[in-house]
Please model this.
Amino acid sequence: MASCLRHSINTPENSLHTKENLKINGGKTLEEAMDYYLWEIKPSMGLRGNFFTGRYRIIDTLETSSSVTVFAWVISTWVDTNGNTVSEGSSICEIGFKKEDNLYIYENHYYIKVPEFPYVPQKVSDILSNDDGKIYSDLMAEVDKDIENYLNSQ
Model:
């Protein structure tokens, strides 16, 4: 007998992710577009569990008239019903959005290693090298709280 695995994606109350943004594959603002990336693109990567959550912090952006490139630290986790990690990721990402009709539309993403990646802006490298783990700790605390709330809600 096959079991039915229920997948739940935790979109926090303060998320800017909406059904309207699904239709445009992004958002009207960069923050809405990043929420689209976090809640629609990231969950499809890696093994799925019963519950997904994640967070991001924008480190820097490079913007032209037709596109914007976001450098962000992204953390995501899938857990099972007992809170055991099924898959997780923590990475610095370069996320590309095209700008069209006053919208930010998701195009691509790359995982980057600082400073090995050849074209990481110096500002991004400087911020990360002087961070002492604070960005990661802050993001992970939010993810851990989401998982705790999920487990308590069962």
